[in-house]
Structures are given as C-alpha cells and as structure tokens.
Amino acid sequence: MYDVVIIGAGVSGCATARELAKYEAKICVVERFEDVCCGTSKANSAIVHAGYDAQPGTLMARLDVEGSYRIPQLARDLDFPYRNNGSLVLCMDEEDLPLLQALYDRGRKNGVSALRMVTREDILAMEPHVREDVVAGMEAATGGIVCPFGMNIAFAENAAENGVEFRFDTAVTGFTRTREGWTVRTDRGDIETRTVVNAAGVYTDVLHNMVSSRKLHITPRRGDYYLLDKTTGGYAHHTLFQLPGKYGKGILVAPTVHGNTIVGPTAIDIADRDGVNTTAEGLEQVMQKAANIVKDAPLRQVITSFAGLRAHEDGHEFVIGEAEGAPGFFDCAGIESPGLSASPAIGHMVAELVRDKLLLRRKKSFKATRRGIVNPAELSFEERRALIAENPAYGRIICRCEGISEGEILDAIHRPLGARSLDGVKRRVRAGMGRCQGGFCGPKVMEILSRELGVPMETITKSGGGSRMILGRDEDDFREEAGV
C-alpha cells in the first residue's frame, strides 16, 4: 500500500514527487515509457517564461511567475543548466502597439518584475539579427532558458535519493475505488494506494474521465522545431518572441543553454496523442514565421528537427486539484506552455494538496541537493588532469561532436534511475546530440550500454519498447545460443 501513486514521470510529475519526498510517505511514480522525461517534457522550447502572457487571476499566471522565480535556486541546488538571458517580445507593426502595451500591463498585473518597453534602436543594439522594420518591443529581464531534460532528471534523481520508487514500462489501464483509497490497474499488475496524482500529460483527460463525472477534454497540440548547430550559438542572445498580431502568434528564436539555436514551434491541433512526427508543412511554417522577426536566419545549419505535444485544455488553464466525485484523486492536467516554467510551483501546490489530504508529517532527513554528472570540459586543466588520473574513462572521448567522455556515459548509466537506452544517455550527457546526431558515437554507446547493463547488443534500444537498433535475432535466440 502506497500513500501516493504519481502517474507520469514528466517534469510536473517528478517535481511533485520531489516535493512529496519532503514528507513521511511511501511514494511511487508510474511511467509508461522506459525512462523519465519521455513525453512533453523532452520536446519543448526549453524556455523559462517570465509570466506576462497568461491572463491575470488564472492559475497559469500565478504558477508561471512563482515557478520562474524558483528555478534559479533549484538549478543551483540540483545542479542542472539554467541561464537568465531575458526575453524580448517584438512588435513588427505600429497598429499592434496597443497590444504590446496591453501585454506589458498584463505582466505587471501578474507580478512580473523587471519589465520595460524598449525602442527599435534598443532592440537592434541588443539583437542585430532582428529585422530592421521592428517597431518596438518589451524586455522581460527575468526570462531564461533551461535544459528541460536536465531539470526533469534532476527532480527525479533527487526524489529517488529521498526514497521515491519509480516503475517504468508500466501503463495505467484503469482504477477501482477501494475502502483505503484506490487500486491502480496497470499492464504489469495492480498497485494499491491511498491517493493518486494524475500527471499523465496528453492522457490526463483519459485517466480523469475514468473516475470523475465532470469530464475533462485535452487536445494534443503539436509543435514543430528546428535545432541549429552550435556555430549559430551567438545568433540570438535573448529569447525572441513575436507579438501576436496580424501575422498570428508566431514562433520564437532563442539560444539554448548548450550553445545551439532553437526555432519554433508551430501550434497544430491533432487527434493522435502520440503524434510527435514532424511534417513538411509544419517545418515550412517554422521557416516562414521566423522570417517575420529575424533576418538571415541560419537555417542551413539545421542539425535536426523534432516535434512535441502540448496538453491543451479547452479553457486554456491548468487543472490542478481533487477530481470531482473522486476523493483522493488529484489532477495535474492541461499543463501546456508555460508548464516547464511553472513546474516547480505546480509540484509544490500538488504536494501541499496531498499533504493536507493525508495529514503527512515533514521528514527530518530530506536531502535537498543533488550533484549532476561531472563535465570535464567545465573543469580547469589541473582538475581535469586529476580526474583522468583517478578514472581514465574520463580521458576517452566517445562523442566527438559534444566532447563527451566514456566516464560521463558510465555515470549516466550507473547513477540513480540510470540510462537504459541511447536516448537515455543522450538526455543525460548529450552523447549523440551534436552535428552528426549519433552517427559516429551511437555504436560505441551501444557497446557501453551492453557491457554495463549485462545485456546483448541486440536488445539495446533507441528509446525503449520495440526501438531496437540491431535487427535480426531476438533476445531468446541470443540467450539460447549463448547457453544462458
């Protein structure tokens, strides 16, 4: 019997798990994929929004501002990449100046600090690649960028270090109300719990509607992106947004914490809750809309394109709280943009609701900090030499594009909730994230995974499930041949 079962190991679910780990409780996170950060949390703009966009008085507005203020300290405590680069909203038409002023006023009502209106001359001095016909803009100094994988994984690892259990490759299929709470039915057996937190992304409405008479509707909203090579890393300094106007909502152009440039996303409603494929039409839309705000966009330097899904609730609002008619079943639904920014505040809010429901007591032994994977490139020469002398694996470069050593990959595999797939390694240390997208390092990473996990090469996958990298024999054939 668990006190809490959290469904979904994305950034909201893992932030909630970490917050609940501060209390005396038995907690389990259930995830249908093979790792944390496999859904919406892995494919987004990686932006820490300042909080000026959401309508004043909404939960979305409050939690965005609160979350954005929490992230800098969390980045220090949990050792994940974050940079306060600021945001610029660009007005490209004089007719839209009242809309820019309204956005500024909305931000002030939401409690966003350090907002200021900027002139055309200010913008071009700060961002020389913005189109010269820009009219004016608004700067939000508290805006930032983050590594979405790094933040999600940091929350999960810290939760695990504080006693939270994780069950992967486990899909929830239904619920039964019990005297003690809930039976969570999964494709790998039943789980008994006193409370449930539904943080299942684009599937939150499916799970909610199994237990509540008040129905919820989520639309999967696809966003297509381009990721550009690190040679473009200085193209934009701020996160550049287009003011919604006669050109539509537009897209953003932004640096990443790892030195790339990201361009996107589109906003296309689809029916497929797993439809993360890009389309030619969507990517063409990204290119066209980028040209509305910047000139000479270096789109010939694209190293990959990808798409992610946002869980759009019909009222465009976060749905957080106990589901109607389902005591002890807490929703964390409709977490679309600015969900990444708001996630620390979302986790705090959900944890308090569950704490009050179960009358949980605070732990005395909670470990609030976590150390990430050592990056030798960030060390001084002397520190790097000492590290390699202690462990020569840090001197063997596996991923040449990103300069990732075998030592970092070994750490990614063996730390709490360690990587079990190529994408798991990539999210933790960026091996395969560079210009060649794993073309050179992929086979070597597979060898390391096979060796360290003690499994045949034929069973190593790109991202779990049936995504095997080597086709031919299945695992049973291999084991029979090996006499295992």
Model description:
This protein has 484 residues and is α+β, with helices and mostly antiparallel strands. The chain folds into three domains: 1-81 and 144-217 and 314-372, FAD/NAD(P)-binding domain (3-Layer(bba) Sandwich), CATH 3.50.50.60; 87-141 and 219-310, D-Amino Acid Oxidase, Chain A, domain 2; 376-482, Arc Repressor Mutant, subunit A (Orthogonal Bundle), CATH 1.10.10. It is built from 13 helices and 22 strands. The protein has helices spanning 11-20, 59-78, 97-109, 120-126, 148-161, 204-211, 280-290, 339-358, 381-390, 406-414, 422-429, 442-453, 475-482; strands spanning 2-7, 27-30, 47-48, 82-83, 87-91, 115-119, 136-140, 144-146, 165-167, 172-177, 182-186, 189-198, 218-228, 239-242, 252-255, 261-264, 268-269, 302-313, 319-322, 329-333, 397-399, 404-405. The strands form four sheets. Strands 5, 6, 7, 13, 14, 15, 16, 17 and 18 form a nine-stranded mixed beta sheet that branches. Strands 1, 2, 9, 10, 11, 12, 19 and 20 form an eight-stranded mixed beta sheet that branches. A hairpin with a 5-residue loop joins strand 15 (252-255) and strand 16 (261-264). Helix 1 packs parallel to helix 8 and helix 10 crosses helix 11 (422-429). The radius of gyration is 23 Å and the shape is globular. The chain starts with a strand and ends with a helix. 50% of the residues are buried.
